[in-house]
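Weekly puzzle thread! Below is a chain. First person to post its structure in token form gets bragging rights.
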Amino acid sequence: MEINLDEDVVKALDEMETSVAIRAILEFNIKALLIGQKVSNLLQKELRDRDKSKLAEDLSWVQAKYEEEKAAWVRGRQL
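Winning reply:
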């Protein structure tokens, strides 16, 4: 794996103490994990909400179809 960094960044990293660099990496990883967890939760919520809205659409379609068939049945009985 190859990582290309700007010369200023490389110089700053070379001058940085090892413990400071490790703390910075750990902090970055922790923040990345938290953001990943938040994104995952948002996606799961969106999927649940989409499933509910799809179910509501299907239910309204079934109800409309039932009303149509009921009206057709009533018209058929009147003849």
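Puzzle host: Confirmed. Bonus trivia for everyone else. The two ends are 80 Å apart (CA to CA).
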